[in-house]
Design brief:
Elements (H helix, E strand, L loop, with lengths): L20 E10 L2 E6 L3 E6 L13 E7 L2 E6 L1 H4 L11 E7 L2 E7 L1 E10 L18 H5 L8
């Protein structure tokens, strides 16, 4: 049985098409809830630093952090999905790539980089989403600095 690649499964699709699928992801938590994002979307993980606010920031945006001279907009998953406060101070920012741009996702903790084989007989089903899918068109316009490096 041949294995599928990430290109065989568009974002938002269920990965259980009868062939095993190797999937690597970063597992992180926000407000006690677990989230995963594909490793190939994550550019780097940096320590949390309080964001600078900009006027007219969208509701799910926390502000910006400076990263090597680039102003990186931050996505606050807690606000985006109306999660309760955990009382835990955010610890990390996942710097992610999407549609030629970069963003930061605020995480209470990063658990691990994990590898799973998905879709084998009796195997797990997983719904994949991308950073691009959790943002509205208006929010995407908020990201005004294309990733060039």
């Amino acid at each position: 049985m041949s294995k599928q690649s990430a290109k065989d499964n568009p974002p938002g699709s269920f990965l259980n098409k009868g062939r095993p699928y190797d999937f690597q992801f970063v597992h992180f938590k926000v407000s006690g809830a677990g989230f995963c994002i594909a490793v190939d979307e994550v550019k780097e993980i940096i320590p949390y630093s309080p964001p600078a606010r900009k006027p007219r920031a969208m509701e799910g945006m926390a502000g910006f952090v400076e990263l090597r001279g680039i102003s990186v907009p931050l996505i606050d998953i807690r606000k985006r999905f109306s999660l309760p406060s955990s009382g835990q101070r955010p610890a990390k920012i996942l710097i992610v790539r999407f549609e030629g741009r970069i963003a930061g996702i605020i995480a209470d903790e990063v658990i691990d980089v994990e590898h799973k084989t998905i879709g084998a007989e009796g195997g797990a089903r997983i719904l994949t989403i991308t950073t691009s899918e959790i943002l509205t068109p208006e929010e995407k316009r908020f990201f005004d600095s294309p990733y060039t490096g």
